[in-house]
């Protein structure tokens, strides 16, 4: 992917985390083209805010936050941004653990306010962000699922939140809990090839190869590797299956390499073929 | 026992970690194990998401094994960078994977040795500070990572004799700085990238020009 072609808008739509590009380009847009941006100015400000936090440029972040707060004084989404500033500052190097927890605590207060006010506005941003706060307070804490679980008790049909909870459990290496969360995701979003894939990977890690195989198969059915995009499921399937079924998966994998123009020249295809014959 | 690291085998793990600075990343180290030393000549990036899940790891190792046979290299180690800034010790996942590699390599050859390369964010920050304007004496010894080897009692012990090529004359840190300034870390290809885009070179990737 050519770097120069990545626009601020593309980065937002594809949810790419490229603060090195977004910050300078976004700031330039806000400065020079403000008149022509109209209302998209505000989304760009939020994006620039995030990029600034990533790069620890707190002054820039604060400035964008203040402009957003002026424009949307009652917005919970904007209030969450304030929490994020404290959260990011808590991560900054050179702080004592006391200073760090104090900042993290401040962010947590703000997030808790927002979570409590969730009846009227579904601001899901802060439920996620509070997870990273937990990371600061204690690295491998078991308590980290708490906020999300509480949120999910109120809104059990939020597939995104279940996905997030699964990620939290994976980080704590609580595979059984991650599996349960992913099963919930699949109930809510049964056509998602990525969720089938992820559950298959967790099951494989739990050494339930037989069950993993059926989820890999589902994932492949939903998105076939013959159009090149699901070789991850093909790989998983190969690892799980007996010889007969392996042939199906192997053909998927080799086909995915063969229909890709540059791939046939590389050592990876040779390694795949050597491995599978 | 000395651990000697080639320039690219140092640059790749650092660039991989920088590309995904918000995630944990890992990879495999290839080289040769000698009587008095381990020579690490190549680093192959593996993953940046869900490092505790096994299937992609198993698939990558199967392919790397075939590649090693073709190139007469061995797997001599594993590198890992934790996600959090303050977490610089050996994480449970890193330990588990490194132990598994050590076990597998020892099954094939009782004399095989495995190194565990943990990227250290605090040290890395010091190196960055020196690069931008510090004393060069300090910089020669600040790699931004710690290499561990297996002691007889099974513990991972920090290796005392680590030599990374190009630190003595400061050429390697300068090169790292140059690459980062040009944003080259974004061109590093790990196994996950390769699986999503087969045309991206992975097993024989070069440092992005």
Question: Cα-atom Rg of chain B, whole angstroms?
Answer: 16 Å
Number of strands of chain A: 0
Shape of chain A: globular
The CATH homologous superfamily of chain B: Cytidine Deaminase, domain 2
Q: Which class of chain B in CATH terms?
A: Alpha Beta
Number of helices of chain A: 16
Number of helices of chain B: 7
Strand content of chain B: 15-25%
Q: Please give the share of residues in helix of chain B.
A: 25-40%
Summarize model confidence as the mean pLDDT of chain A.
Answer: 81
Largest interface: A-B, 46 and 37 residues
Number of domains of chain B: 1
Largest sheet of chain A: none
Keywords (chain A): Endoplasmic reticulum, Membrane, Repeat, TPR repeat
Subunit structure (chain A): Component of the ER membrane protein complex (EMC).
Subcellular location (chain A): Endoplasmic reticulum membrane
Family (chain A): Belongs to the EMC2 family.
Descriptive overview:
The complex is a heterodimer of chains A (277) and B (209). Chain A is mainly alpha-helical and 277 residues long. Chain A is 73% helix and 0% strand. Chain A has a domain at 244-277. Chain A is built from 16 helices and no strands. Chain A starts with 7 loop residues before the first helix and ends with a helix. Chain B has helices spanning 7-19, 55-71, 92-108, 121-133, 136-139, 171-181, 191-196, and strands spanning 2-5, 25-33, 37-47, 74-81, 115-119, 145-150, 156-158, 161-164. Chain B has an eight-stranded mixed beta sheet. In chain B, a hairpin with a 3-residue loop joins strand 2 and strand 3 (37-47). The longest helix of chain B has 17 residues, at 55-71. The model of chain B has no long low-confidence stretch (mean pLDDT 92). The chains are: A mainly alpha (277), B alpha/beta (209). The interface between A and B is large, with 46 and 37 residues.
